[in-house]
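During the reporting period the student researcher (J.K.) took over the structure-prediction task from the postdoctoral fellow and processed the backlog of single-chain submissions. One of the processed entries is reproduced below for the supervisory committee.
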Amino acid sequence: MKRILLGFTALSLLFSCQQNNNTVTTDNTTTEKPASATDVHTYANPSMAKVTHLNWSAIVDFDQKKIMATAEWDIETSDSANEIVFDIFDLKIFEVRVDGVKAKFNVGDFDEHKGKPVAIPITAGSKKVSIAYETGKNARALQWLDAEQTAGKNAPFLFTQSQAILARSWVPCQDSPGIRFTYNATVTVPKNMIALMSAENPQVKNETGVYEFSMPQPIPSYLLAMSVGDVHFKAISDRAGVYAETSLLDTSVYEFADLEDMIKAAEGLYGPYAWGRYDIIVLPPSFPFGGMENPRLTFATPTILAGDRSLVSLVAHELAHSWSGNLVTNATWDDFWLNEGFTVYFEHRIMEEVYGHDYAEMLASLTRDGLVEDAARMLVEVPNDTKLKLELQGRNPDDGVTSIPYDKGYFFLRLIEETVGRDAFDVFLKNYFETNKFKVMTTEDFIVYIKENLLSEEQYTTIKANDWIYKPGIPDNLPEVHSNKFALVNTELSNFTSNGTQPNVELTGNWSTHEWLHFINSLPEGTSTEQLMQLDGWYGFTQSGNNEIVAAWFQPTIKAGYQAVYPRVEAFLVSVGRRKFLTPTYEALLNADKATMANDIYAKARPNYHAVSRETMDKLLGHE
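J.K. obtained the following structure tokens:
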């Protein structure tokens, strides 16, 4: 899952010396005692009974905006098993059967983050549990869109977002990244629509509206996904293609034209792609993330359709998850960096293979700048969340979706690469994915693994690995990034801020999105409204169709009170639901004493946001 963007503050607090609550020796020679891999975000007790395969039969009802379904689970039991426990959130259960026989069940108390447990009596010999149910109006994974909320405005749309623990709001499941299962599904939808899942998918609509699915590789519940809409398919290669609404299909195919090259680059680095096909569906703009790495079918935001293929690093990121995350999965959400840090590292390597070293270093430079700013702010507000090993008990695991597991994780791995050399690190990673495929990994198990297979105890100590993993802040050996392209941007920016000189037209005419982002993000504190107006006149940032650029432009302009940007801010926030853009934009309005404007816009925009974005914005704007 692509990261969200946090706010900014001073760098001076970055290199923290705060003490970890768990004892870690200061010389880095002692590894923290292995923690329990118990997942605190599920009610399931997999040591007693766990699921292994799902047969799911469902009817998608757009009129009532609910799913009516039966989830039949194959289960594996211990010798002492007397019950199996499932997670639910706003599901109405009608009937439970164990091996075909109607059974009693007990629904426990509600927890705001975890929902409710469903305990079902079984024996050690039980093989199947079937649950008939329907979803409720507060199913947090589901977003039901009316036709006018889509690009084509011809038909309604439904999509799911199960990560981190939202699968339980549309399927009763053991909702933990540490529990894998295969699945088959039969889904009935309106006849003018097509259903797609994180599985083997149809490429054309049929006349019945009934679709069959199979996912033969075991996945955790957070990778269970479905979309239903009026979309069509076009192939990019024999194993990759794009689904999108008609008006976006050709644009999407153009944008993702390098997809097969990315897959080949990834395979060349770390081994064969293990999931059969790799397709992308471009969702409506309310999708709360840049992308979601659902196996066989990446969910993507239309905000990456820049028209120049400049934002496809997001696709590289979701593709990389096919190895890091989907193939080797964090055992709990406290170990989230094992999914995302590896994926950002892999993303940058794919981009380097396809687009070259200079291009990849621009991405790495932007990543480093964002990490430094985010970590400084978080050290004031939530210092423990700047550790790689998170502490999320009693919290929504979505709280861990910050730049820390992504970008601090990436730079920790880059530091290891710089320590042992790229060739040795590539061999290690390829073996890591192959040895641990379709398994889970804890932070502590990874430490043991890397010491056994790559790092000596001396190297582990020298790079201050325990500081990176278990202590707040960013250690003082954060790898440097040198971007030749950004050095040229800095020269032009300096000439503008010092002398009011327009940047060289021949140079800027060839700038990529990343160079423009660096230019905007590097505008000095106190840039005047007159200077912003001048830049806007030259480059039209306020009306840019590139969502990354316009979202970055909102930061200095809102802060400076550049009034010409306010109508664009409102139009953007009402039409885009990607949380990466919403959070810093609403924060900028609040910090500029524009709370009334922010709340007025939010009142219009909120109905179009997915529950994931609504929950974050409700908290930010005090609507809880």
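The committee noted the following: The chain has 19 helices and 21 strands.
J.K. will present the remaining backlog at the next meeting.
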